[in-house]
Structure formats: structure tokens, C-alpha cells
Write a structure and sequence with these properties.
- 41% of the residues lie in helices and 15% in strands.
- α2 packs across α3 and α2 crosses α10.
- 44% of the residues are buried.
- The protein has ten helices and nine strands.
- The protein has a single domain, classed as Alpha-Beta Barrel (TIM Barrel), CATH 3.20.20.
- β6, α6 and β7 form a beta-alpha-beta unit.
- The radius of gyration is 16 Å and the shape is globular.
- The chain starts with a helix and ends in a 6-residue tail after the last helix.
- It comes from Shewanella mangrovi.
- Keywords: Carbohydrate metabolism, Lyase.
- This is Keto-deoxy-phosphogluconate aldolase.
Length: 209
């Protein structure tokens, strides 16, 4: 099975799509693809989320489309059945991690402290999401975890923006930054797809040095 990092390739932005309709999800994904984005996360927070995930995969077969906000076994099964290419959770528990261990696609469990990191590692996971990143210690936390868990890499999400993304991306154990700031609800509502494209182009620029 490919790792999450392998799916990312050179992409350093994990753009989050929250859609109220399948058509809206396709439009957002299309705007992101125009920026050279090949991998996106659809958060399962609306009734149309699964339909949006499936519609994006149908409209853009080459795009890697993951499912986020997976919090239990039922949501996990639904996401896998819908064709999710990877799974992301906002948090971890022993029960959820046990369910995720048999997942047929890459999984990025969400952690918020060192106990979570240890729990995830004990269940065999070394690619983790720090959430909410800025409220959970930010780049300083990820740097500190590098000394204790050198095998672990992070994709921080929550409070990330163009103003602080390079602070995270400069760390060797940070593979990408995630967030919805590149597709805020106001831009989606007004169909400002060009703004989403431009924001993704800026956000997907790796940190210098």
C-alpha cells in the first residue's frame, strides 16, 4: 500500500473541500486542479459530502480524493465504499485505531498531544495529522516530537494560513499543511473559483531552504 506521503508526491498543501452539493464539490475540486493540485480531502461534515466525493472522483479520475472527519467505524465503511483514496481522522481512540488498522487505503489519524502520538504509534501508524495544529503546540510541538518519535511525520491542520505555513513546512517531519483557508465558504458561495485557484497556487509553494 502506498503511504500518504507517496500519494502527495511533491504537493505540500492538503486542501480541504467542504461542499453542500455534489456539484459544488466538483467546482471546488476543478478550481484546485487548475492550480496543479492532484490530491484533496473532502470532509464528511455535510449531507452531500459522500456524493461530492464520488462526483469529484468521477469528474477528475486522476485526482486523489480522501475522506476527512472520519470518527467511527460506520463513517469509515461508508467512506471506503464511496471510493475514498485515503482516510483522515480528527482524533484517535483505541477503538477507532483498531478499526483503522485494517483499512485498505492510507490512513492519517488525528492527534493533539504526545499521548495521542504514542497511542497511534502503538497501533502501527507513523503518518499523523496534528489537529487543531495551532492550539496543540503548533510547529514547536511537531519539532519536539521529532526527537521523541523520529519515525513519525505530520500534516498539521487547524489554524494554518499563508502567514504561518512555512514555519511548519520547514520542519523535516512535516510533509504537508492542511486547511480550508484556500476555499473559504464565502468564495464558494459566490462561485469565486479563480480566487480558490490563486490561493492554492500560493499555498502549495514549498518553504524556501
Amino acid at each position: 500500500m502506498a503511504s500518504f506521503k507517496a500519494l502527495l508526491k511533491e504537493q505540500v498543501l492538503l486542501p480541504i473541500i467542504q461542499a453542500d452539493t455534489a456539484e459544488q464539490g466538483v467546482a471546488i475540486a476543478g478550481a484546485m486542479q487548475q492550480a496543479g493540485i492532484h490530491l484533496v480531502e473532502v470532509v464528511l461534515r455535510t449531507e452531500a459530502s459522500i456524493a461530492a466525493l464520488q462526483a469529484i472522483k468521477a469528474a477528475y479520475p486522476q485526482m486523489v480524493v480522501g475522506a476527512g472527519t472520519v470518527t467511527n467505524a460506520d463513517i469509515l465503511k461508508t467512506a471506503i465504499a464511496a471510493g475514498a483514496d485515503f482516510i483522515i481522522t480528527p482524533a484517535v481512540s483505541p477503538n477507532l485505531l483498531s478499526q483503522l488498522r485494517d483499512c485498505p487505503v492510507p490512513v492519517v489519524p488525528g492527534v493533539s498531544n504526545s499521548a495521542d502520538v504514542l497511542l497511534a504509534v502503538e497501533h502501527g501508524f507513523t503518518e499523523l495529522k496534528l489537529f487543531p495544529a495551532t492550539l496543540s503546540g503548533g510547529a514547536a510541538f511537531i519539532k519536539a516530537m521529532g526527537a521523541v518519535f523520529p519515525q513519525v511525520t505530520f500534516c498539521p491542520t487547524g489554524g494554518i494560513s499563508d502567514k504561518n505555513k512555512d514555519e511548519f513546512l520547514s520542519l523535516p517531519n512535516c510533509v504537508a499543511v492542511g486547511g480550508s483557508w484556500v476555499a473559504p465558504t464565502s468564495w464558494v458561495a459566490e462561485a469565486s473559483w479563480d480566487k480558490i485557484t490563486s490561493a492554492c497556487q500560493v499555498a502549495n509553494t514549498p518553504a524556501a531552504g
